[in-house]
# Entry
Amino acid sequence: MPFQRCFLRTLLPVAGGALLFLSQPAVYAEVGGGPESRGGDAPLAAMDRNELEARRLLRTGKRYLEDSEFDKGVRALENLLEQYPESEVRFEVHLELGRHFHENVAEHQAAIDWLKRNRSLLQREEIDNDLEQVMLESQYLLGVSYYYLGDYDQLFTALRKIVTRYPNSIWANQAYYYIGMAHFTQKNWPKAIEYLSLVGTFVDPDAPTARFVEAGRRFYCKVQDGDLPIITKLSDKPGTVEVTSQSGDTETITLMPLSNREALYIGSISTKVQPPSPQDGKLQVIGGDRVKVRYLDGNTEAGDKDVPREAEVQVVSTGTVAFVKGTLIEFAKAAFTGQDLWVNVKDVDLDRSDGAETVRVRVESRYISEQTMGEEVDLDADDAESADADDPWAALAEAENQGPQWVVRDEVTLTLEEVVIDEDTGEIIDSDVVRSGDFIGAVPVVAFNASAEVNKADAVLTAAKNDELVAYYTDEMHVGGDYARESSVKLEVVGEFKPELQTPGGDSGDEMINARKLLTEGQAFLELARIFKSMGLADMGDARVEEGLSRADEVIQLDAISPELRQRAFKLRWELHLAKGDLESAIATLTTFNEFFPESDFADDALMSIAEVHRGREEYSEAIAVYNKVLGLENSELKPQAQFSVGECLELQHDPELEPAIPAYRKVAEHYGDSMYAGEALAKLVAYHTETDDYVQATDLLEQIFIDHPDEPWLDGMLLRWAILSYKMGNYSKALEKCQQLLIQYPESEYTKKARKIMPRIRAKLDETGAE
# Structure
């Protein structure tokens, strides 16, 4: 997803073009100095022993995730939540799990489920800086996860809380990008332009990173020139931009219009690391390259023709290090003694000539000292030998020192050579010119012999089973700047290499693993049941429901499982009953669930499901009663939806009268103003005040909608309503303005035909009154 952008912006009011480069927004920003320091600066003086232990467990879980031992990491963090459910550390755990599911396994719904648990931080009147950063990153990742699921309404709600409450933050800077792209995906071009143009506005344009482009990534440029729409229309040819790499490749980018009103155009081209091959549709770049962008301004304000506007960016490469298999194109998942360990560094900055360059990488094998394994850490404040009560940092330092410690067993400094690798076969291509930035090398890994001394000066790496192998590479130049940045990669030694070796597997008797397996199967049966039901195959759907229920019941009856797994089993159970249409059994399951887990996060989901069933049966009074139960929950995130649903049920119950539902809709706008339902509630109030001829109140609400809810998909209808209201109030200039706004911003709207139809009448009134 990361990209580089070149922005060519006019500096003159009508004609003329100029160049301005904006650096890309980072996809994820580091908080407090990077992953290792997140949460590390918490005020320890306020911490008790439980907080210190929770933080130690958090570090353990994070290390597992960093080492790609995802199951262990997730399980460790979930266990932390079970042991210390009230600890402030839980918010960092929610973020870690949300980040893991979002980044590592692309399970965006799972990420959302974890990140939503941090929304309570938004309600705090006072919050320290560390938790504020946790809250902001959680809210940002929540919005990005909604983006990848295509749920743009939820995205707007999540990210707008950042851009309105924390406008001068890097998170707002990045949020604008996803808000803009959501509008872009929905072909709402004016809104897309508006928000994408805000990306980078909080980045220092004089910063060194503002003129870097990442080698191998797609390159974007924007052109804003007031004359370009007219020129392209008269010539019947699209605008173009010429890009030239210092190494000799020249390509032409065709510009596409984003907004004729704004005279804004966009173009892009892919970049590839290799010697130049002009006019092949890709921009070839090599190490140390610079890229010049050239646009001919066809008509300046002074009347000059074809004035060149130019800007330049530096090609840089953010170096990476990886362990790969002997095929050279597949990442290694494990290491073996008796086999070579292949290391790959990709860094185009190191490619300085046509010849093959070299780079040095340090590789080490390490293990956890048995002397520190399993030791109990005494942090009692009364024990002067274990911790100094006046120095809480001493307690943390002692916990760190007495916990598991890595010990280096052997290390080798490995020289990697630059090669050209065939992307399809992984074979090294013999070439006189090597301009790839791809470096490969291997080190033999030999089994550790307890009776022999490890020689750290030889060219082999000694390791034992379960050792961790780590490769370290220092990147001196990258998209972040020209400062040293260390990259590393880790791999576990799983045993001796044997050609017939198979990855160990098989079922485990552990009840936690078994419970997760059963829940996965039960969820699959639920989805199948829904599919069969939608196809009208009720019997087949019911059979799948019974299969799923057997899995859920088996999990509920297990003893040694976490409360969260048991809650998930109950949730699966009532969802299966609902899929079958057995409302009574679903309610019975919910009742039992609430007895055991009255504070569960799943309670509001269950109540909403029951209410929707009543609503589907047109049992509106019963549905309203259940929605009110959700409103009675202390910390439910579904209150805005429940309150809006009360209004909808009242509206359906008294159709066609809207008045009985107005108090419910007003509560949504007053109490949940930053929710995704507030805008629609205000729209209902506008409709009511229009029907009751209270035009002033309706107009005031319309102004509020466009200020507070600028991303709603139905604003085109509101513009037409605003035009009609203005006409009725005799404000013909405003009526014409809103019609024109509708035609420009929503040219494909169903309401544009009506706008065009009433515009002659509005203009006639303007002529009669002599208004401008």
Remarks:
- The first helix runs from residue 49 to 66.
- Residues 1-46, 372-389, 500-509 have pLDDT under 50 and may be disordered.
